[in-house]
């Protein structure tokens, strides 16, 4: 591999890493703060993509679709948290897993009923349609760079929210000691509802702005689910920083694995995850017991 | 909650269950006999996972790897020209699965919780892609085997697994044997220790037990019992594919255990039958059967705190209790 | 539970011993007919196709068109009314034996239609093939093995073998003056079979593949490979993807700027049923397939209009395959006047089938029970796959390993 193709693949890695982070961020939030293994995360992502397809079709603009779709995802998140998940906080976590599995079935089938079985795409917004030349025969789409910027923004926003805001402090307190938080008079139920809605909205949002790249089709959430978990677990549960590093690591491993080790490309990300966990059983940035 | 009465009730209920299974082939339609046979196999598979989840506190999302690996091993060692003796085939498949479980377990057990879930998934996925991309073992299409193993003593055939309902009863026997084995194991000191680990690992360790070793043994036993199920599955259908060890299968069997009721052994079997029979019925009712399945799962989680087994236990408690109905323990 | 096939097919490579001479003899040496049933009960058609997940579109297209065809025949087969039992395959091989046995053992269907997935096709073929099970017609799954080593008297295919739509593409690329190509496909059975066929024929016409890229199924992250292709700078790229993967690959390929420098070719599934979603990115892509939307024959025009009218959607190759499955059933059942028990006669009729009014153009059944059909060269223009000529006329699958061929 010569130097220029190395640089290009490095760019691909980082860009894929940004995408993975965006998709996984909502998962690590719900995971770290509520302790819920949310299997429906991929279904939320899919729902976001379909909302983008539907709303962009109605309004003619992806921006409008996102502005309408994100509040919708928040409402859906709150509704699911209030109507089902909130009953389960005292129970074994595995019942939450089973519940979110049920949600996958419901959401996938609802998608088929509402939008059918076709394959759709969402056009890239006019202003991001250009591309930048990389080599003689390859260009880089501006929209991919735009998504990277959005991911950076989300990462920064999440970091600031958790470290600096009142809500963030409440969230951190809720994560470490539920009883104490409640003793301080903070409404933990409301915090959990907000966190779950935020996680759902982040998953939906990544589905929406990823839709022009990924295309929109039934079952698209399944794959995203597994890779999101891989990213979150490598980074360490609940660590936004960890998810970011995990996403970059998987972006690199996947991209260079495909190019340099094509025979084992399919297992590279799992091998990386296994190695990381053998080295650090609680992920790169997970707290140690 | 566990009184001598409820324990006796459970024993009676299990006995009735086995009896129903035993006489079912006499009057069941052949399709349903086949379906029940497969659900018994899945019951063994689910039970093996319950040893990990419900008793040892290890949640695995890679359990189908052992199920599928054992099936592949049987397909690989069965010659093209004729059947293989079960006296070779079964020990070989179980040993192969056990060794794989030992390696995966030894590496995985240093993690816990969600990390354990994901590292077991990682190993299972690697095995999945190994078979999916192997040219020798049929790649993504999988392998066939055309003969069930034979059970002979000397040159005399003890039981012809191809004939009549013999294979059905063989699987029923395996189901009862697996239950008996696991139940005995759990009542033995070993079972007390692993349940102690699930409740509080640090305390168990403080009592002087090498908890990791106990967890590893439990993991290997669970893998081998899953291997027994995979052996039966491959013998039953003659088909083994990467799909058998995909994460979808691992996920489904995990859901089966939780739905049925963790830490009961019989609950997961109940879960396998409930999932299987409901799907069979929902499919006939509506093309949106998956939606109904989803609502059913949500309803069980919300309304049955201990899964289906919890419901049975509650009924048992009510039947055996002298207290007025409605006043549950 | 069905007994195991005692015929001793090598299960590993499946390259030897078809569904065995014994099985063929058993069926063609006639089975007593059940005239008592004829004309009385409804004909039962069992369908095993995906109705959920990524490939639900294929299942729906096939089922819709199959029913449409039988509806055009007055809803009758051989003078008897028709009843459908459809099961969602969930694209799951482990569930296939149960699903197949439900259709065959419980529902006692007269005909078995399915599937889409090649692993499922092989599992179904193992259960019903070379036996006195119902006649099975495959409306999609292209696995070479089904009409190769696994071929059986009662198994027919109304679609294609993976070899068929891919093979002529090799010659097309050579004729366009390309010398070195890169192939890229998902690393599963269908992908590997199509890649091998296209590449082999390209080699026969003097070209060569400088790299065969296998993407782990169902991964859709192609960026690393696109950069690799740009770096290798071949004359052309031969690609097989379908469904959501095809949409994304074609769009990513164009977005990386490769489309104008390195033309994209492939079996028609690359653009079939998805060219609208691909939009401008698909414009100009040449593919080879046994169907194209604007085929100039009366049957195609009639079919497309009727399909649009009935389902408010455009017909695609999958619906054509479903439609022809219906035509096969009609001709066979007419020949035996509705006597589903006359298995031997049904098989003979299907073997001699000549579909002269198929939307894809006339085709006949090969000895291995796979269509002998024209493969068209198509090119995407304004989001439609337009036919540009015949890439291979009356192409017959080599059916390697089939004892009937």
Summary, kept brief:
By secondary structure, chain B is mainly alpha-helical. Chain B has helices spanning 4-27, 30-56, 64-77, 86-108, 113-133, 166-187, 189-199, 201-206, 211-237, 247-260, 266-285, 289-303, 307-320, and strands at 143-144, 151-153, 156-159, 239-240.
Describe the structure.
- The complex is a heterotrimer of chains A (289), B (329) and C (405).
- With 289 residues, chain A is mainly alpha-helical.
- Chain A has one domain.
- The longest helix of chain A has 32 residues.
- Chain A is globular and about 65 Å long.
- The model of chain A has no long low-confidence stretch (mean pLDDT 90).
- Chain B has a domain of 218 residues.
- In chain B, the strands form 2 sheets. Chain B has a two-stranded antiparallel ribbon with strand order 1-4. A two-stranded antiparallel ribbon of chain B has the order 2-3.
- By secondary structure, chain B is mainly alpha-helical.
- Chain B is globular.
- The N and C termini of chain B lie close together (6 Å).
- Chain C has 2 domains: 217 residues, Response regulator (Rossmann fold, 3-Layer(aba) Sandwich), CATH 3.40.50; 127 residues, Rossmann fold (3-Layer(aba) Sandwich), CATH 3.40.50.
- In chain C, the strands form 2 sheets. In chain C, strands 7, 8, 9, 10, 11, 12, 13, 14 and 15 form a 9-stranded mixed β-sheet that branches. Chain C has a 6-stranded mixed β-sheet with strand order 2-3-1-4-5-6, with helices on both faces.
- In chain C, helix 2 runs parallel beside helix 11 and helix 11 packs across helix 12.
- The radius of gyration of chain C is 21 Å and the shape is globular.
- Chains in contact: A-B, A-C, B-C.
- At the A-C interface, helix 1, helix 4, strand 2, helix 9 and helix 10 of A face helix 2, strand 8, helix 7 and helix 8 of C.
């Amino acid at each position: 591999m010569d130097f220029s193709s190395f640089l290009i693949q490095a760019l691909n890695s980082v860009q894929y890493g940004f995408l993975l982070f965006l998709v996984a961020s909502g998962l690590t939030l719900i995971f770290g703060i509520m302790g819920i293994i949310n299997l429906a995360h991929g279904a939320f992502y899919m729902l976001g993509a379909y909302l983008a397809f539907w709303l962009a079709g109605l309004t003619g603009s992806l921006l409008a679709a996102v502005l309408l779709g994100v509040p919708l995802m928040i409402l859906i998140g709150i509704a699911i948290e209030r109507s089902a998940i909130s009953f389960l906080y005292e129970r074994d976590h595995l019942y939450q897993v089973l519940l979110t599995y049920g949600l996958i079935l419901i959401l996938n089938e609802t998608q088929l009923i509402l939008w059918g079985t076709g394959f759709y795409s969402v056009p890239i917004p006019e202003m991001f349609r250009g591309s930048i030349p990389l080599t003689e025969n390859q260009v880089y789409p501006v929209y991919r760079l735009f998504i990277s910027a959005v991911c950076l923004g989300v990462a920064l926003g999440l970091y600031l929210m958790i470290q600096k805001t009142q809500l963030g402090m409440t969230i951190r307190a809720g994560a470490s000691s539920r009883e104490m938080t409640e003793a301080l008079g903070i409404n933990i139920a409301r915090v959990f509802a907000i966190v779950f809605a935020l996680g759902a909205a982040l998953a939906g949002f990544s589905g929406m702005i990823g839709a022009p790249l990924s295309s929109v089709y039934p079952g698209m959430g399944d794959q995203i689910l597994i890779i999101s978990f891989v990213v979150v677990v490598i980074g360490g549960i609940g660590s936004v920083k960890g998810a970011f590093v995990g996403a970059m690591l998987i972006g690199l491993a996947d991209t260079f694995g495909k190019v340099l080790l094509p025979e084992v490309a399919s297992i590279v990300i799992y091998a990386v995850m296994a190695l990381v966990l053998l080295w650090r059983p609680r992920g790169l940035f997970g707290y140690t017991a | 909650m566990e009184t001598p009465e409820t324990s006796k009730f459970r024993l009676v209920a299990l006995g009735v269950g086995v009896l129903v299974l035993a006489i079912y082939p006499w009057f069941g339609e052949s399709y349903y006999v086949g379906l029940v046979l497969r659900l018994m196999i899945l019951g063994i598979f689910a039970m093996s996972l319950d040893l990990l989840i419900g008793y040892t506190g290890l949640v695995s999302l890679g359990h189908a790897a052992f199920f599928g690996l054992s099936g592949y091993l049987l397909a690989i060692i069965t010659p093209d020209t004729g059947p293989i003796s079960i006296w070779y085939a079964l020990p070989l498949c179980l040993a192969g699965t056990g060794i794989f479980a030992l390696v995966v377990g030894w590496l995985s057990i240093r993690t816990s919780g969600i990390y354990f879930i994901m590292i077991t998934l990682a190993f299972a996925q690697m095995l999945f892609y190994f078979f999916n991309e192997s040219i020798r073992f049929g790649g993504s299409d999988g392998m066939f085997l055309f003969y069930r193993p034979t059970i002979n003593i000397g040159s005399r055939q003890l039981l012809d697994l191809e004939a009549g309902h013999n294979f059905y009863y063989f699987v029923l026997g395996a189901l009862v044997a697996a239950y008996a084995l696991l139940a005995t194991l759990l009542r033995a000191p070993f079972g007390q220790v692993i349940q102690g680990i699930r409740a509080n690992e640090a305390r168990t360790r403080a009592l002087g037990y090498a908890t990791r070793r106990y967890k590893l043994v439990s993991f290997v036993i669970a893998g081998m019992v899953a291997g027994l199920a995979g052996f039966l599955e491959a013998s039953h259908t003659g088909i083994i594919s990467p799909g058998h060890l995909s994460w979808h299968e691992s996920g489904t069997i995990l859901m089966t255990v939780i739905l049925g009721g963790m830490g009961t052994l019989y609950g997961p079997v109940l879960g396998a039958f409930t999932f299987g029979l409901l799907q069979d019925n929902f499919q006939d009712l509506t093309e949106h059967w998956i939606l109904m399945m989803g609502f059913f799962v949500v309803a069980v989680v919300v309304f049955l705190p201990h899964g289906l087994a919890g419901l049975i236990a509650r009924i048992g408690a009510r039947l055996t209790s002298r207290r007025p109905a409605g006043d549950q323990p | 539970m069905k007994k195991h096939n005692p015929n001793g097919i090598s299960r590993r490579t499946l390259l030897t011993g078809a569904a065995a001479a014994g099985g063929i003899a058993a069926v063609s040496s006639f089975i007593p007919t059940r005239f008592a049933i004829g004309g009385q009960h409804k004909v039962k058609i069992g369908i095993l196709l995906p109705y959920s997940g990524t490939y639900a579109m294929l299942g729906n297209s096939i089922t819709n068109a199959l029913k449409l065809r039988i509806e055009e025949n007055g809803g009758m087969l051989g003078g008897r009314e028709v009843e459908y039992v459809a099961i969602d395959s969930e694209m799951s091989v482990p569930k296939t034996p149960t699903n197949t046995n439900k259709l065959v053992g419980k529902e006692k269907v007269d005909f078995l239609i399915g599937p889409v997935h090649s692993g499922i096709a092989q599992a179904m073929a193992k259960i019903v093939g070379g036996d006195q099970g119902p006649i099975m017609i495959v409306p999609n799954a292209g696995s070479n093995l089904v009409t190769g080593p696994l071929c059986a008297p009662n198994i027919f295919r109304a679609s294609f073998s993976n070899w068929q739509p891919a093979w002529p593409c090799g010659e097309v690329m050579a004729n366009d003056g390309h010398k070195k190509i890169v192939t890229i496909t998902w690393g599963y059975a269908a992908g590997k079979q199509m890649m091998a066929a296209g590449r082999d024929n390209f080699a026969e016409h003097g070209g060569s593949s400088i790299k065969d890229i296998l993407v782990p199924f169902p991964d859709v992250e192609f960026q690393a490979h696109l950069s690799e292709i740009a770096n290798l700078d071949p004359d052309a790229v031969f690609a097989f993807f379908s469904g959501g993967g095809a949409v994304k690959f074609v769009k990513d390929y164009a977005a990386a700027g490769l489309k104008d420098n390195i033309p994209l070719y492939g079996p028609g599934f690359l653009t079939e049923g998805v060219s609208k979603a691909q939009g401008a990115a698909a414009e100009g892509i040449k593919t080879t397939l046994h169907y194209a939307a604007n085929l100039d024959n009366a049957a195609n025009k009639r079919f497309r209009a009727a399909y649009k009218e009935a389902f408010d959607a455009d017909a695609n190759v999958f619906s054509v395959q479903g439609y022809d499955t219906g035509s096969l059933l009609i001709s066979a059942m007419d020949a035996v006047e509705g006597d589903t028990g006359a298995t031997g006669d049904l098989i003979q009729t299907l073997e001699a089938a000549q579909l002269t009014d198929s939307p894809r153009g006339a085709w006949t059944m090969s000895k291995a029970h796979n269509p002998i059909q024209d493969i068209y060269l198509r090119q995407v223009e304004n989001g439609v796959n337009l036919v540009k000529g015949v890439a291979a006329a009356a192409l017959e699958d080599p059916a390697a390993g089939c004892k009937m061929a």
